[in-house]
Amino acid sequence: MLLSVSDLTKTYPGPDGQITVLDGVSMTMDAGETLALTGESGSGKSTLLHLVGGLDQPDSGRVDIEGVDIGALDDGGRAAIRRDQVGVIFQQFNLIPSLTVASNIAFQARLAGREDAAWSADLSDRMGLTAQLTKYPEQLSGGQQQRVAIARTLAARPKLVLADEPTGNLDEATADTVMTLMLDLVTETQAALLMVTHSERLAARMARRLHLRAGRVA
Ligand SMILES: Nc1ncnc2c1ncn2[C@@H]1O[C@H](COP(=O)(O)OP(=O)(O)OP(=O)(O)O)[C@@H](O)[C@H]1O
């Protein structure tokens, strides 16, 4: 099993005391699986994604990635898991403004010790970014930046890809094309994909679905 989430709870401080955002969420994913995370706005989808990626800590419960309890790791250990095993794609791209598109794409793969020029070139080509490689992020459209963010994550060949509305900024036709590419690429690299989406159309293209309602698996 690649990912195991057990009885995860998370609260945030609210005006009238703690607000429970996740209320005992459990789930698992095997290597290579695709899973759509759906639910109304505020149901806890992004919070769950952050906890799985070790970007935030739960109040209770645990997350295991490849059998390692990431809550038991120190900051350095969690950073190493994020660098080596997990790729995140958020709506806000988080590209590095001072690096070219090509360097942005190579960046995470280099950090993970898996730089592979041929694979990066293949990704750039398939994402339609070859003509943009020497440009800087600010010179790209939103949709192009989104594709760079996806290519950068896949270039490092993570075992688990966490994506929060990765095609949320794209028009429907482009979103479908990028989604097809993403699904092809995760299949090729045997990565698992856990993706938050509000789109029924995109959710239907994933193998499984987990629906959250008020912080619980519905
Ligand atoms: N850092 C925070 N501090 C306080 N409350 C927070 C924080 N982050 C999230 N929340 C609250 O937790 C709840 C769940 O947020 P979350 O972003 O996980 O929902 P979501 O299902 O991803 O929503 P959306 O579809 O709108 O992105 C919301 O009520 C939100 O206001």
UniProtKB/TrEMBL annotation:
<dbReference type="InterPro" id="IPR003439">
    <property type="entry name" value="ABC_transporter-like_ATP-bd"/>
</dbReference>
<dbReference type="GO" id="GO:0005886">
    <property type="term" value="C:plasma membrane"/>
</dbReference>
<feature type="domain" description="ABC transporter">
    <location>
        <begin position="3"/>
        <end position="217"/>
    </location>
</feature>
<comment type="similarity">
    <text>Belongs to the ABC transporter superfamily. Macrolide exporter (TC 3.A.1.122) family.</text>
</comment>
<dbReference type="InterPro" id="IPR027417">
    <property type="entry name" value="P-loop_NTPase"/>
</dbReference>
<keyword id="KW-0472">Membrane</keyword>
<keyword id="KW-0997">Cell inner membrane</keyword>
<dbReference type="InterPro" id="IPR017911">
    <property type="entry name" value="MacB-like_ATP-bd"/>
</dbReference>
<dbReference type="InterPro" id="IPR015854">
    <property type="entry name" value="ABC_transpr_LolD-like"/>
</dbReference>
<dbReference type="GO" id="GO:0016887">
    <property type="term" value="F:ATP hydrolysis activity"/>
</dbReference>
<dbReference type="InterPro" id="IPR017871">
    <property type="entry name" value="ABC_transporter-like_CS"/>
</dbReference>
<dbReference type="GO" id="GO:0022857">
    <property type="term" value="F:transmembrane transporter activity"/>
</dbReference>
<dbReference type="InterPro" id="IPR003593">
    <property type="entry name" value="AAA+_ATPase"/>
</dbReference>
<dbReference type="GO" id="GO:0005524">
    <property type="term" value="F:ATP binding"/>
</dbReference>
<keyword id="KW-0813">Transport</keyword>
<keyword id="KW-0067">ATP-binding</keyword>
<keyword id="KW-1003">Cell membrane</keyword>
<dbReference type="Pfam" id="PF00005">
    <property type="entry name" value="ABC_tran"/>
</dbReference>
<dbReference type="GO" id="GO:0098796">
    <property type="term" value="C:membrane protein complex"/>
</dbReference>
<protein>
    <submittedName>
        <fullName>Putative ABC transporter ATP-binding protein/MT1014</fullName>
    </submittedName>
</protein>
<keyword id="KW-0547">Nucleotide-binding</keyword>
